[in-house]
Amino acid sequence: MSQTDIFNVLLGYLLFVPLITLHEWGHAWVAWKCGDNTAYNEGRVTINPIAHMEFIGTVVLPLMASFVALSNPALAGFIIGWGRPVPVNISNLRRPRIDDTLVTIAGPTVNFILAFALVALVKVGVMSGVDGMVEVGLRAAAMSLGLCFFNLIPIPPLDGSHILKNLVGMSQETYMRFYQFGFIAVLLVINLPGVRAALAFLIYGTLGLMGSVFGLS
User: Fold this and answer.
1) Rounded-to-integer distance, Cα 31 and Cα 103, Å
2) What confidence tier does 5 reach under pLDDT thresholds 50, 70, 90?
3) How many domains does the chain have?
4) Is 42 designated active site?
5) Catalytic residue among 24, 42, 54, 135
6) Backbone angles phi, psi at 127, to 5 degrees
């Protein structure tokens, strides 16, 4: 493993942390604004990364996946990371089903907005001739879109499952029964070639469209 490999892994991780932090902050902030103070009282309406990190899910597994991917990308696909889940008490929300959906959408929406802002930064880098800004900006924007679209997969515990639950009117009891097997289902689904291809299409297709807004494509 070269020094360049180590640098790229650490850079990727340093980009991942603020992206997942702001994703979780989005959930917490919208829940607070919709009437549930649970996350607010636990100090989650903050952009301090420590408040949103889990040692295993946010530190160990993402770094492990990045290093494993250098030699075995297929194996790395079975290692995923996550931020500390934001606690939401649905009964505290003013409009439980609608507001729960808004809280759920908030995380991916923040990542989408961040990606757009990062592409704008790439444009600045291109205009000023700072190649490092362009490279890092594109990498971070792709990662942010990856978090956005990955979390919209409708399998527990991902955000998309909450959206689907509220859309079809599924009871919390039924949802929790699916939730028990969700983690295994996520690992299996994201390693299906068709799913990976669809995610790549969404990520880089959207990145291309954002780039075209700023005259980058």
Assistant:
1) 6
2) confident
3) 1
4) no
5) 24
6) -65, -35
